[in-house]
Winged helix DNA-binding protein (Saccharothrix ecbatanensis), 342 residues
Amino acid sequence: MELTGAQVLAHRAAVQGLHGDDPDAVLALGVVDSPPKTGAAALGVRGRREGTEGLVRVLSLRGAPHLHRREDLPALRRQLRPRTEKQLAAWCGAFPVPDLAHVDLVVDAMRRELPGDTATKGELSAAITPGLPEVVTPYCAGCKAHHVIENVFRLCTLLAGIELEHQGAKLTFRRPTAKPEPEAPGEPTLLRDYARLVGPFAKADAEKWLGAGPQDTWPDLRPVRVDGKRLLAHEDVREAPDPPAGLLLFPRDPYLLGPRHLVADPDVARQVWRPVGSPGALVLHGRVAGTWRYEFSGRTVTFQVKGWSKVKGAARGAVKDQAEVLAGVWGAGALEANVVEW
C-alpha cells in the first residue's frame, strides 16, 4: 500500500480526537503529564473541558508521569511488568540486572512501607531500602547512597498500585482511594492501541515509546510505504479531514509519536526535541512548523510563538483559539491569553 505523509497525519489527527469529537481516545495510550498540567493541556486541545477529573496520575510508560483511566490500570500493570531478563534490563540502565523475583520484593515493600497516606519519593525510598537486598539497591554515585534502581523504583510504584498527586513539581505518592484491582488477564493492547492511534510506524518507534524492552507479542502488522519509506501498519489508514489548521502541542503529545520525519523537517525537529528544556511544538496544517513557550504574569498567560508574524489566515485564528483553551485548562477560566512573537 502506498500512502502519503499527509494521509497518515490526517488519519492520526482524526483517530486521536483532535477535531474535538473524541477527546479521551488518546487515554488508551496514557498521556504524559510532566510537567504537571501538560496532560490536561493535551486533553484540553482535544476538547476535554473537565480537566483531569476522573483520571489517575501514575508513573507508567518509561517511568514517566502519565494520566490514565483508572479502569485501564490493571491491564497496564500486567503489560508493563517485565517477563524476561531483557525486559527488566530496559528498566535498569547501566546497573546489573537483578532477578525478576526482586521486582515483587520491591512491590511488596512499597505496599507495606508507604509512610502515611502520602510520601515524597525520598521518603518512600528511605522506607523500603533497608529491607531490600543490595542487588536491587546498588550504590548510586550521584546520590551517594544505596537505593532501588531508579526506573525499577518507578515501575514498582505502578505495580504496587501507588498513585501520584496531580499537582506539584516534585513527585508525591499517595495511597489509592480504592483498593487496586489485580492485574487483568487478556491480550496485550498497548502496542495495538499504539498502531491504531499513531498509524504506520517502525518497530523502533514503538519500542522507544513503550520503553519496556524487546517485545515478544506484536499485533498483526503489514508493510506499507509512506512517502516512499517502508513502515508497518496494523489497520487501514482511512480517509479523514485535514488536521486542524493550528495546534499548540507539548513535545510529548500523542500526535507527535511515531516516525518523526512525518511531522517535522530535521531542522525544525532539532529546535523542538532537545535533551533538556524542549519548547512546545507549533503545528500548522498537520506538521510542526516552529516552537512556542509561555509565561504567566498576573492573570495573563502570554504565548510566545516563533514566527508568529508569518502565521496567517485560518492557522492564525486556530492558534489563538488554542491559546484560549490552554489558558482555560491552566487557570480554570481565570486567565486571559495573549499571543506574541517569540
Summary: The chain is about 30% helix and 20% strand. The chain has a mean pLDDT of 94. The radius of gyration is 21 Å. Residues 30-174 form one domain.
